[in-house]
Amino acid sequence: MNIQSPVKLGIVGLGRWAKVLTNSAQKSDKLQIIAGHSRSEEKRDAFTQQFGINTYGSLEQILAMPDIEGVIITAPNEQHFSIAKQIAEAGKHVYTEKPISNILADGLRMEMLQKKHNIIMTVGHSARLLKGIQMMKEHLDDGSLGKLAFIEANFSNERALELTPDTWRWYRDRAPGGPLSQLAIHMFDILHYLGGDVEGVSSIASKLSPVGAEVDDQSMSTVRFKNGVVGYVGSCWTSPGIFSTRVFAQAGLMHFELDFASWDEPENLHKSSSLYIQRGKDGYGLREDLKIFSGNMFQDELEIFADACRSGSATKLTAHDGNVAVAMVYAALKSVGNNAVMVSVDEVMSEASAEI
Q1: By residue range, what is the domain housing residue 15?
Q2: How far is CA 322 from the centre of its chain?
């Protein structure tokens, strides 16, 4: 889509992640962040000083600006619904960082805002926009790998070795399942993107960190797709970090891995990433390393939002996709509490819908 003039956006919540996104936004000619909001005067001043963007003490001031077409939410997860509702009621499009909400019923309410207020909502599941994941998707879609059979993914780091009671991730009610809700949700979204509609999730979890936090810090989840494909997502919170995805298909497999330490500098991710393809039953010794080009998944997701603002429609990073990822987390947590029985994602969605 050819955007003749940049889409003007506001941003709410001016912490670290707002700065990451604004850095990426300023590299794009499709969009322009022109206003920011935080209740903290200190954050407002720091944001204006760093980016030269005017900031305001109330969201209403931004929503009253006629040239703003959409607003980016980087506020805490539990505030996503209330802020999105206010933005949508003002007739502005909504971009929210993932998860769409930490409460599935609120995520479904957010999805419903689109029809009620004739707006579009984009959810920032940027991991599916990584160049290695995109290349996997292309090979699956063009048939060069053959029929997909199995997917495995792991996102781990040492977070649970560093937790203290003054951090929100210490507490079960704020970070349910520990890495399950904080890290595995990225991989659940990737599995949904690569594998298709999800039937159910089965999970186990344990606690191994010596610090004494409330949350579990290990999780293993198996995923069954409606097309018969199966998958696995692992997440360890007591180990050096890894972010890896592997797809197995009847004519070949692909493996992608990156150094998560470079996550905040997306243009450099390709330098510490690897991607190989292996074709055929005798192909182990013929594995081919594929070149990963420089990219910026944060700029890409914001440009997807900008396109949606102008076109009034969206097929990527949708509110539905965001809710599927949260529903998979809900199913995993329910399974952990019920001896690893497989939990239907559709049933989880139905139960959340009944709360609305």
Answers
A1: 7-126+299-315
A2: 7
Residue 108: inside a domain? yes
Q: pLDDT, tens digit, for every residue of 56-104?
A: 999 999 999 999 999 999 999 989 999 999 999 999 999 999 999 999 9
- DSSP letters of 170-207? GSTTTSTTTHHHHTHHHHHHHHHHHH-SEEEEEEEEE-
Into how many domains does the chain fold?
2
Phi-psi region of 184 (alpha: psi -120 to 50; beta: other; left: phi over 0): alpha
Judgement on whether residues 12 and 89 belong to the same structural domain of the protein? yes
- Give the strand pairing for 198-206 and 218-225: antiparallel
Q: What angle do CA 267, 295, 37 make, to 5 degrees?
A: 70
Q: How far apart are CA 279 and CA 271, in angstroms?
A: 24
Q: What is the tens place of the pLDDT at every residue in 223-235?
A: 999 999 999 999 9
Q: Cα separations (Å) of 294 from 182, 190, 336?
A: 26, 20, 39
Q: Are residues 181 and 307 in the same domain?
A: no
Buried b (16+ CB within 10 A) or exposed e, 298-316: bbbbbbbbbbbbbeeebeb
Cα(115)–Cα(258) distance, integer angstroms: 38
pTM of full prediction above 0.90: yes
DSSP calls for 343-356: EEHHHHHHHHHTT-
Rounded to an integer, what distance in angstroms lies between the CA atom of residue 37 and that of residue 79? 14
**317-319-320 Cα angle (round to 5):** 100
Q: Are residues 156 and 234 in contact, defined by beta-carbon separation less than 8 angstroms?
A: yes
Is the residue at 279 inside a domain? yes
Mark whether 122 and 139 lie in a shared domain: no
Residues 209-246 as b/e (b if ≥16 CB within 10 A, e otherwise) read beeebbbbbbbbbbbbbeeebebbbbbbbbbebbbbbb
- Yes or no: say if 37 and 56 are a contact pair by the CB < 8 Å rule: yes
Q: What is the pLDDT of residues 322-349, one digit of tens each?
A: 999 999 999 999 999 999 999 999 999 9
Q: Distance from CA of residue 282 to its chain's centroid?
A: 36
**16 & 161 share domain:** no
For residue 39, the one-letter residue type is: R
Question: For residue 101, what is the domain's CATH number?
Answer: 3.40.50.720
